[in-house]
Write a structure and sequence with these properties.
Strand content: 35-45%
Largest sheet: 8 strands, antiparallel, barrel
Order of helices and strands: HHHHHEEEEEEEEE
Number of strands: 9
Number of helices: 5
Shape: flat
Distance between the termini: 31 Å
Amino acid sequence: MKRILFSALLCTYATAAMAQATTPDTIAPKRSASEIIVSAAGAVAVNAAITEALKHSIHEMRPDRTANNSFPSRHTSWAFTASTVLSNELYRHSPWWSLAAHAAASAVGADRIVRRRHYASDVVAGAALGIASTELAYWVSRKIFGAASPLGIHQPENTFRPNLSVETGANYNLNNRYCTGYSTRLRGRLPISAHWGLAASAGASFTPVKTSSGTRPLNSFGLGAGVCAHFPLATRSLAIEPTVEIGTSRLLPVDGLDYASWGFDTTAECSLSWRITRSFACRASAGYRLTTTPRALSAITVALSSVAVF
């Protein structure tokens, strides 16, 4: 797991360096120091209040059996709050800030599962709380200061261009033996025409599995490739993006579970892409994933992505 955290830290520094060399993507209204402080402090306060209320009212035992305050993951909630604050403040300058922050927050969530401190569902809930509480705080801050939303100032056309995204998602497995899984993925898309292109991804998945002695995390790392499409909507900043990929996964050994070392993946999903600036977009996805271990493991997937557009 130290390798994952080191890679995330390296990614953060590398993308930050790239961001410093990038010219601002849009001409955004200047934000005062007081507005930034109120927005960020409000995000921390709202997140802490909701997270702590849930942790002290929902008594779920941790996977390592050390305490009964597993839900939601506090570390993940904090990480995604920080990630969303950084993204809100810096995405107009360079998309790499958002991707770096998103990758680091996703690594924190993966670490909590691998260490058996949380179930994947705790991490997914923490990520959702971090994002939602921060956006709520920024909305309230704009009302207090009478500021217009920066998203309404520029509406760039969502044309099909090469892009790279960092994705965080949840896998709702259809077999009761498998709990909700957590996934993170780096995905690239390359257009070959106005509406069609190629897709490739590298990612990791963490799925708790029920056994007679408790739950054990089934962790896998994989690569995939396939085709994608891009269909702009009437609102020019929005587009529908279907994607189909097939690939292979390396499944890590788990005590008490008998699985093959390698499996095959098939993923089909449909995304709604929102181009926020010329070089940055957000993507919400829903789809279906089938993994052979060699048993067939099928899941409904949902994910959010930060996207750098070239």
